[in-house]
Amino acid sequence: MSNGILSRNIRKMVQYNLRNTFYDYQNHCGTSCSTIKCWKWDITPVILMHNKPSLRYAVLILNRPISQEEAFMKNFWEKATLRITVDGGALRWDQFLTRLPEEISNKMKIPDLITGDFDSITEETLQKYKKKGCKVVHTPDQDYTDFTKALKELNNHCQEHTIEVDNVIAIGQASGRLDQILGNIQTLYLAEKQHLLHPETKLYLMSGDSLSWLLEPGNHIISIPEETRKHNRAWCSLVPIGETCHSVTTSGLMWNLDNQSLKFGELVSTSNAFDGSDTVKIKCSHTILWSMKVPSLTGE
């Protein structure tokens, strides 16, 4: 093995990033032990991602107001490996830039890709970014949302230009039209079920001061940032989408679940909170949506 290949392998082994860690372990119960999937999650890097140049991530701006703190958003965008605006998201990005001093906004990097069916972006904005050299991909297929199609184009772009990203963070708002909010959650599921991204690339939805992602069946250990643990209104939720999660057991929450079922029309764990522990542990039988508050995203 060459020194270059060895160095890359070592770097991948030790690289500290937001990508979740997966491992199998066996119950100590004799020769008939079952294998249980377990993931470790630490979202702290997403808060400080712009301070970690070794991290590789893509940012997608969806067509919702950008409510994150300006300094965070500016650095988050500039340090990204890949920057994409999705249809009217280009307008939202333009609106964000107008809040910055002109000498700063003029130096901000342009989107690497603008995609969508273009029913929300204005022709003026589209032509403006075309003249700046942005790659524009029209995706008229109405069977999928612009968010879903953008993930496909992101993956195509990465393959075409030999770009690797470990994390994709879509920035939107969980407010406004309920059908669009549900559509964004649907995209999280489609990304997993239809393998829209590289198998090792993880997808997160950032909305205001919260992060959401899917927890697949198995065990999960989620590190809780100190700022969240100490915030007196920090919340979290575990929501089953599309199917019953027949068994959920947790620790580290204010209201823990003990081998209980989560199902719409019965029990759904919204507006939960943290008990101050460093980690939350979750064991689930089916995929659920996990969301949690991260105060610094909006400057709290």
UniProtKB/TrEMBL annotation:
InterPro entries: Thi_PPkinase, Thiamin_pyrophosphokinase_euk, Thiamin_PyroPKinase_B1-bd, TPK_B1-bd_sf, TPK_catalytic, TPK_catalytic_sf. GO terms for molecular function: ATP binding; kinase activity; thiamine binding; thiamine diphosphokinase activity. Residues 218-289 form the Thiamin pyrophosphokinase thiamin-binding domain. Pathway: Cofactor biosynthesis; thiamine diphosphate biosynthesis; thiamine diphosphate from thiamine: step 1/1. Gene3D superfamilies: Thiamin pyrophosphokinase, catalytic domain (3.40.50.10240), Thiamin pyrophosphokinase, thiamin-binding domain (2.60.120.320). Keywords: ATP-binding, Kinase, Nucleotide-binding, Transferase. Belongs to the thiamine pyrophosphokinase family. NCBIfam families: thi_PPkinase. This is Thiamine pyrophosphokinase.
